C-alpha cells in the first residue's frame, strides 16, 4: 500500500480530512485532521479512521498503523 492510496481511502469517507501518512509498505503513521472530529473523544476519532482502514488491515495490505487525529483548530 502506498501513501496516495491511504489518503484517497480516508478522504473518500471524510472529505474535509487532511491526511499525512508517513511510512512505507504495510507500516504507517497516519495523521488525520478533520472538523468531523470536533466534540469526539480520541477513541471515537480513532475508531472512525480504523473503520475506514479495516479492509486493508484485514487483507494485510496494512499491518502496523499508528494514528494521530485532531481537529484543525
From TrEMBL:
Q: InterPro entries under this entry? A: BolA (IPR002634), BolA-like_sf (IPR036065), BolA/IbaG_stress_morph_reg (IPR050961)
**Which Gene3D superfamilies does this entry report, sorted A to Z?**
BolA-like (3.30.300.90)
Q: Which PANTHER family match?
A: BOLA TRANSCRIPTION REGULATOR, BOLA-LIKE PROTEIN 1
Q: Which family does it belong to?
A: Belongs to the BolA/IbaG family.
The name of this protein is BolA family protein
